[in-house]
Design brief:
With 434 residues, the chain is mainly beta. 9% of the residues lie in helices and 35% in strands. It has four helices and 31 strands. Strand 28 (325-331) and strand 29 form a beta hairpin.
Length: 434
């Protein structure tokens, strides 16, 4: 039995010692581990999935705004994802998540972070997925998140902080229903950030009453959670694996929800990162060989390197790039080093042309600041080589901006991006075997 004292709106509870028993486990895919647990003292039935975020073959996804209002299994099917779980609580009118939401790098309109919601965000960095759960007091906008963030799913309340159950829960929150036993969904991260754990608890059924937030938090701590947040509870709680709903939603059928979190196993479709290396400005470089920079050393963040050729368009080319925020460091004799990033899309060519300026690197050259550009190169070029720009379009005094083929920028002049990206790339491929 559980006894509780309510002080104001907070529950200070003594929870009977739970006795969860793992009565099933399997590894349906490399890096994806599934367990089933029961706690006869409640009773409660739980499904747990551990995701290895270090796997190069597991991609993480969050719902885009255009996908709002799907069931969890429909979202998994759309992505061909092996694992999916429901996301944040939401308004029934329009399926708008309560907290900040983002899918495929685009934040949802009319969603914001607040002092109640915790926030799970993730990005692909080189060959791994990096994720974090930020606490409610860290109120953030999409612009505050790390460059290259691809997905955000919010939830409330925070269940676990620094490896311990949070001390109190708001019993008056009608959405969280934190202090009654109910169906639950949650996501947790290990202390080293390499393992994401998803849990769904069946509830409001004879065989499984559900859990309070405190009971679920204690279960997660015992499974190694360092930080965890609650996702939408009640009839929304759904876990899908390999096309099947593995838990028992309390309505007897799946509920359509606003957003979801999903994981897909398999070789991720690779992309291609190409770009020109030019003096001062990438625009017009195709017709002005005096600005071609030959023998520039271009290093991709996965360790691969390329060198721009002599006597032809100075193009670098990296194939087989995992979809992510990919960064190159460009060095050339007599020029300041530039570090510049661009989001690589699956199965597509992404252009990240770089403009260099004359100078000698200082001691900190090549060290990245928040903009994604080496400090000395930034001061010389005035460019923004960060995730949203192709970088190096002209001198700042001339109003230079994002650079060649920046999806978010103004259309390039005739003979600019389109010609560089298509015409010169085609000519280069015809004339070389690199």
């Amino acid at each position: 039995m559980r006894t509780a004292w309510v002080i104001g709106t907070l529950l200070v509870a003594h929870v009977a010692v739970a006795a969860p028993v793992r009565d099933g486990s399997d590894d349906p895919h490399p890096g994806i581990h599934h367990e089933h647990w029961t706690d006869a003292s409640i009773p409660a039935s739980l499904d747990l999935v551990r995701i290895d975020l270090t796997s190069s073959e597991i991609g993480a996804y969050a719902t885009m705004e255009s996908e709002a209002g799907m069931t969890t299994s429909a979202y998994a099917a759309k992505l061909d994802a092996q694992v999916a779980i429901n996301g944040d609580s939401f308004t029934a009118n329009g399926f708008v998540p309560r907290g900040l939401a983002m899918g495929s790098g685009s934040a949802w309109t009319d969603t914001t972070d607040d002092a109640v919601s915790a926030l799970l965000h993730f990005a692909r960095v080189e060959e791994t997925t990096q994720a974090a759960i930020d606490p409610p007091e860290a109120i953030e906008t999409a612009g505050d998140l790390p460059a290259g963030t691809q997905g955000v799913v919010s939830g409330h309340p925070l269940l676990v902080r620094a490896g311990a159950v949070v001390p109190s829960f708001d019993c008056t929150d009608a959405q969280a229903i934190a202090c009654e036993r109910a169906p639950r969904s949650a996501a947790a991260l290990s202390a080293d950030g390499t393992t994401l754990t998803l849990v769904v608890v069946d509830g409001w059924q004879t065989s499984s009453l559900g859990m309070t937030d405190a009971e679920l938090a204690a279960f997660l701590v015992a499974r190694g959670a360092s930080v965890a947040l609650a996702l939408d509870s009640g009839a929304s709680s759904t876990l899908v694996m390999d096309g099947a709903v593995v838990n028992h939603p309390s309505d007897g059928v799946e509920r359509a929800v606003a957003n979801h979190l999903a994981f897909k196993y398999g070789a991720l479709p690779k992309g291609q990162l190409v770009g020109l290396v030019c003096k001062h400005d990438v625009f017009g470089c195709d017709s002005d060989s005096s600005r071609w920079i030959a023998n520039a050393k271009v290093k991709l963040d996965d360790g691969r390197g390329d060198t721009t050729p002599s006597g032809e368009v100075p193009l670098y080319d990296f194939t087989g790039v995992t979809p992510r925020l990919a960064c190159v460091t460009v060095k050339a004799d007599g020029y300041l080093t530039v570090h510049q990033c661009q989001q690589v899309q699956a199965g597509e060519q992404t252009y990240n042309s770089v403009a260099l300026w004359e100078g000698t690197d200082a001691i900190d050259a090549g060290v990245i600041d928040a903009s994604g550009v080496a400090p000395d190169a930034m001061s010389a070029a005035g460019g923004d080589g960060g995730a949203t720009g192709d970088g190096g379009r002209g001198n700042p005094a001339a109003g230079g901006g994002g650079g060649c083929c920046d999806a978010g920028g103004d259309p390039p002049p005739l003979g600019g991006c389109v010609f560089l990206a298509l015409g010169w790339f085609a000519l280069r491929r015809l004339g070389t075997k690199r």
